[in-house]
Amino acid sequence: MSNMEIRPIQSRAELEEVYNLLETCFPISKSYFQSRLDHYTAYRFDTTWVAVVDGVIASTVQIFPYICRVENVTLKVAGIGSVATKPEYRGQGLGLQILQKLTEWMAQEGYDLSLLFASIHPFYEKLGWSIVPETEYRLPSEQFSSRISLGSPDSDTAVHSPYWVKPLELSGDLKQVAAIYEQTNQERTLSRVRDSVYWQDVRQSAEWLEGTWSAALLDGAVAAYGRLGRRNPWDNEAITLEELCYLPGHESAILPILSHLAAQHPDIKTWKFRLPPDHALLPLLKEWDAEQTASDLMMWKMIRLTETLQIMKPVLERRLREESVGSFRLALRCAEQSALLIYEEEHLAIVANYDSGKAATLEFQQPGLVTMLLHGYNSDITVDYCPVVQLEPGAHPPVNELLQVMFPFQNSVFYLTDKF
């Protein structure tokens, strides 16, 4: 009978074993995985988990911690990546057992949510992660090229644009790029908080260095920048615009940047775009008849519902006050987690332990709950209303309107630059 243990790695030597395992399982060199951790200042061994079978590291899962915004508050998110098992150990449920242990560890470590990117959904759904669709736009290369300048001196963009567009230099342009990112996303829900250490680390990250960067300068200063993701070995004929940020008043820098980026990838057949809903490029994509699809790559898991709502309390309280909402007591429940919201005299309390028999309760499926928290409530979200106790009539809007007040539409975005 095999001896198996699930735990974080304990040494540099074990980390090297993990790198070798990942190189065996993915069509990417070992150096790619090394660049993601070796140059990450905040990296800790306890974010690399393994299943050790008879002394052999047989399976691994990596946590990529980050902080995301919900307006002006922040949540701690556990990004999940580098999930791999040696071929000879597959079929034994090792990855599944690591993720089960990790869920307990994430709660203990104060993570609010977990996010992963996956095309094989059933495996992760069994463990509690759920697809939360994101809007993606697609254009065939011919259609895209006909709509933008590809740098021809005879093109209108080349003649009239006041911007000088060049490859972004991480050394010289990084400080200005960081400032543009912060100004664009300082209260944008779902965007990652990028501190100075983050920008220092990216200079040596393969994920960043293998992408294609362009910067638009006006009077010598960066006014906008864009990034295409690295070419995907599984889909080498498509490429994604992962980030395109601009200073207010510089929306016209978008087309010159797209032209510059496109000129560096003339063989691409399909262009993909993931943008926040208020982005200046979106009206153009709709005008160009870009195909709008629902991407199912992002899967979320709620780790701590009550604590997440506690963190969001100042935001929720402000929204309720602005709409002059009256007093109410209402519980939100998802799977085995629930929290009671008590709003009285313009103050909100979030209660974990309460008598469920005395509280009107809204039951959510996890995709709907995460969508509501991070994107805003909409009528497509399924909510089961369990009115054990009726809410006091007239003191507040109807339940669906109350949810829209507490969780209004958000111009949310997770930039794929930060995927793991």
From TrEMBL:
Biological process, per Gene Ontology: aminoglycoside antibiotic catabolic process
Keyword Hydrolase attributed: no
Pfam families for this protein: Acetyltransf_9
Keywords: Transferase
Domain N-acetyltransferase as annotated: residue spans: 4-151
A Gene Ontology molecular function term of the record: aminoglycoside N-acetyltransferase activity
Domain of life: Bacteria
Protein name: GNAT family N-acetyltransferase
